[in-house]
């Protein structure tokens, strides 16, 4: 069962606590059950003098339900995710017996992520060794960052297609459709014909491949979202309260 903090929080008095209780009651009915709560920091941040009474009640209800899970409901496992573990309420943090830090992906993982996010059915000209080049140039990038880079790279051939002035006939790389299609090319290409996209039958139009240049350009425009200071805080929190995962 997967829920986010936004699913549980409500502006109506008492509804947030009911939402928390309802999730755990449903989990007990369905046990064995795993409850995954995303962005738990929004639900169970540190207590302070300025927070509302409603927020305090939500934390109290969550603590009560977690305690019940730990004693009487062995078939329910609660997992939670947060990008700012140091902001969690101390009592909430203690309820989670394991606090595991998942570090940023290593080089091999990043190379695999570039492949995955680009998609197996995407028309591209990227060579096998170039995936590792991309991985080398993307240190400190998270999986989400790599996804953004790939989406930007996928848009670049579309932009080229819209502004192209010359096309040539090539063999259709797809198994279905016409045997030949129109592909963008430079004006100096021996087979180039002066055309614009609006004069070509859409069924005979070949989307330009994603190239290594597209990936490099996208990588240059999309910077990593995790800074060095944040990495230090993650490591300090892990040394004090948790352990490192993979």
From TrEMBL:
Domain called Spastin/Vps4 C-terminal: residue spans: 182-242
Start and end residues of each ATPase AAA-type core domain: 2-104
Sequence ranges assigned to domain AAA ATPase AAA+ lid in this UniProt record: 132-166
Coiled-coil residue windows: none
Pfam assignment, any one: AAA_lid_3
One biological process term in Gene Ontology: vacuole organization
Family: Belongs to the AAA ATPase family.
Name of the protein in question: Uncharacterized protein
């Amino acid at each position: 069962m997967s829920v986010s903090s936004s699913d549980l929080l409500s502006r109506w008095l008492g509804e947030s606590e009911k939402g928390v209780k309802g999730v755990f009651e449903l989990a007990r009915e369905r046990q064995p059950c795993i409850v995954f709560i995303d962005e738990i920091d929004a639900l169970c941040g540190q207590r302070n003098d300025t927070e509302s009474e409603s927020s305090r009640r939500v934390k109290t209800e969550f603590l009560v339900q977690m305690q019940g899970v730990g004693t009487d409901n062995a078939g329910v496992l609660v997992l939670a995710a947060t990008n700012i573990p140091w902001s969690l309420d101390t009592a909430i943090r203690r309820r989670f017996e394991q606090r595991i830090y998942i570090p940023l992906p290593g080089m091999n993982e990043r190379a695999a992520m570039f492949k995955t996010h680009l998609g197996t059915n995407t028309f591209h000209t990227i060579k096998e060794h170039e995936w590792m080049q991309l991985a080398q140039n993307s240190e400190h990038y998270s999986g989400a960052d790599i996804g953004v880079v790939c989406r930007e790279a996928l848009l670049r051939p579309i932009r080229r297609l819209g502004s192209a002035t010359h096309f040539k006939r090539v063999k259709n790389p797809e198994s279905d459709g016409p045997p030949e299609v129109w592909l963008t090319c430079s004006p100096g290409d021996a087979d180039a014909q002066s055309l614009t996209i609006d004069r070509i039958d859409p069924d005979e139009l070949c989307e330009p491949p994603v190239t290594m240049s597209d990936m490099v350009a996208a990588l240059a425009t999309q910077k990593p979202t995790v800074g060095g200071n944040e990495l230090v805080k993650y490591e300090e929190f892990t040394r004090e309260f948790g352990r490192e995962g993979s």
